[in-house]
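quick one before i forget lol
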Amino acid sequence: MGNSGLKQHYETAAKTGVLQISENKLKEIPNDVFNLCDVLRNLDLSKNKLTYLPEDICKLKHLKQLNLDNNKIDTIPNFLCNLQKLELLNVSNNLLVNLPQNLNNLRHLKQVYASHNKIQDFPKQLLGLQTLEVVDLSYNKITSIPPGMSQFYAAELNLSQNEISQLGEDLHQAPRLKILRLEENCLSVDAISPELLRDSKLHTIHVDGNLFEPKQLASVEGYNEYTERYTAMKKKMF
């Protein structure tokens, strides 16, 4: 779809603040997007062929949601973090090896989706972001969860399909973490500490496809406390 075909999308976005131009084989962000800098709050550029982000994206000062899923981007530049109102960032299905170092400047960020990339280290820049709710880092190459998770504020963390063999010693101190997905990693049952089951806020932990059978969790000290939280959560749902 050429620029003429996108014209109606821009006109609609000028009224609604929402611009959806996915699946248009775009290799770069059209300049017309930046003409909407005073109104644009939601920008969907997914399923294109973008390889980079221009610095002009900083002009979108009101942007709350940015969807870059399914492109060919290998670097998210630090200047993206000038989008101070950003609440949702989706960079899944790209070629990223890391996230911007100053990501923790985005003080309103609630949701981060970065699955299906090439990230090797857990992004410590997510620590300290008190607005975080959901983080998806599945299908990457992360090998461990670092210390410092007492400053990780999301309620849901997806790390399935990585190469994790070690969990951070203070993971149980993550103040709001309730759902933890660790399917298909390299964990032994010894990597699941009693503190994680006994002292955390976790009510749901998924460990299928690791180096032990999920039923072996029952032998870890603290399992009873974990199941009590799980049962209480289920009761609230019904």
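fyi Helices lie at 3-16, 31-34, 194-198, 223-237.
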